[in-house]
Amino acid sequence: MTMTIILGVIAGALASGVSVFYGALGEVIGQRAGIVNLGIEGVMLVGAASSFAVTAVTGSALLGLATGAGAGVAFNLVLGLLVVSRRANQLASGLALWFLGTGASTLIGLSFTGSNIGGLGQVHLPGFDRLPDMWQRVFDQDVLVYLALPIAVAVTWLLWRTRWGLHLRAVGEDRAAAFAAGLSPARLQYQALALAGALYGLGGAQLALAYTKTWQEGMTAGRGFIAVIIVIFAMWRPLRTILGALLFGGAVALGLQLQVRGVATSPFLLDMLPYLLTLLIVLLFGRPKAFAVPMGLREVFGGTAK
Amino acid sequence: MAHAVLRRPRATTTLQLHRVRAVAAAGETARWLAWLALALGAYTVMLLAYGRNPISAYSEILSVTLGSPYGLSEVLVKMIPITLCAMAVTVPARVGLVNVGPEGQLYIGALAATWMVLAAPGLPAWLLLPLASLAGFAGGAAWAGICGVLRARNWLNEVFSTMILNYLAVLVVGYLVFGPWRDPGSGNYPQSHLFPSSGTLPLIGGSRVSVFAFVALAAVAVFGYVLARTRWGLEIRSMGGNPEAARRSGIPIARYMVLLMVIGGGLAGLAGMGEVAGLQHRLNMGVSSYFGYTGFLVSWLAGHRPRLIPVMAFVMAVLASGGDILQITEGLPYAAVTLLMAMFLFVVLAARARRRTA
Questions:
Q1: What's the CA angle centered on A16, arms A10 and A21, to 5 degrees?
Q2: How far, rounded to the nearest angstrom, does the alpha carbon of residue B262 sit from its chain's CA centroid?
Q3: Whether complex ipTM tops 0.95
Q4: What is the CA radius of gyration of chain A?
Q5: Mind telling me how many Å the CA of A75 is from chain B's nearest CA?
């Protein structure tokens, strides 16, 4: 019984945390390039709505995923107009992007609210069907869950093992110095925004196509903001975002498990768990040492590093 | 504009100076208009894409809200919480804090005011209403104060804490109105008990506008005065302008951060009090229709300048009322208006940016 609950929580943590992971991973790339994007929530919503719409119309979840990622790129680049080209305040611009995404996603999803889709199927790994039922649930995950680790490794490699990554991080540390060294900060920042946007879009798409298989207005419910907080907890390291996202997902899954098992608590109190936990972990573990923070972010946050 | 002149001292005589200024001003106006046209153009395309007639949509928003006394009074009804929430953003913004949390602070303010009214229904109105207002202020202030302390101690940036607390505030109110505070007589719609008449705010004339309209205006006026004419205002402005210089001249920045967050949150809490006591007369999940977020937009549109807040709040209240109308007549969701509001903010941020950070 206890084991079933624990495995249920783990399975749920993977399924519900992975969208936050993609958001946080994208944000790591963006912040490494010196851009704090508070609009993830909006981009994820646009990714969710557009992927759901395409999947509902064409019946192809893969086409939906691609659309979600593409819409994420396009939408995230809008932020570049403000913060890269116009050098507008990043925090306010990000929130403007969030408002924009909230509005746009509602309109995109307008005629699809309540429609049913097959959604993104589960990946069946060979041999795993011999496991007991309750263990199988843990591995019954969609493709984006299985891709999370490889993608995080790839991003780590990209940022720390390639010339492009070095340049990107240089821009994030000191834009002016990077410019003086002959780099093109604006181009690099736009590239970072595009890559991050694709990841946000995938995160939103996972939410709509695999996790809930529905479209609902504002369905991300703060996951975009959680993702930004997890970046602090992860100290701007791609692989550590997995841990943060799993903690958030675990709190969501725990609440759901308790609800399913008829624990006599208000669902509202259980819904608070993930938010409280996120606050708690960032307060306990999110006190980055000075070297962990990309220097360029100090300017954005007005003195404090986070 | 002045900066442009300073950087390019092309004029030597007064006459030439005037000319340079006029050209600079004209250029700036033209740029603003271009950005605005871009936003409206994009929005028009969006309306067309949804098969709506943009001209009739625009004219409908304007005629229904501004064309009749009732429409106008509904705009004023919305202006009250929007103005207070905009002040909740503006007050801390003047020391460089970004308060994204008026929505949550409004919810907690409404909760605290409701608690006060329902706990002491026997009190006469002249005592109960100030007490409930105080409770509303204190609720919002406490909610924002947490974030102020976290920021002042350098633990967590207020952007994140206020946003998370928004979600938590809604859940707290949800817990109460679905649970312990639920009025069993209200059927399927979960809400608190109805306020006694001593707990409802007086209305102006025969309209639905409550006396909190004056509270909102007073908040704007008092803060504008403090900012422009007092020592505190000077210190606040110096912190907003150059935090490092302010710190070195001995201004207690951390104390100001907490204090201004508390005041800001309190004003959003008053907005919550105004909604429950002035309009709905009970607490439910619909106590705010995005007033906190709209207030955030208003504050940034106004560049955190108190005198522009009521103007921008009026514009946004017209759009918000228009959003309700479009929902009914054109079948467009409220988000269609959110989109237009967001575009305005985009335009203003883009147009203002260079001047500020160059």
A1: 100
A2: 15
A3: no
A4: 19
A5: 13
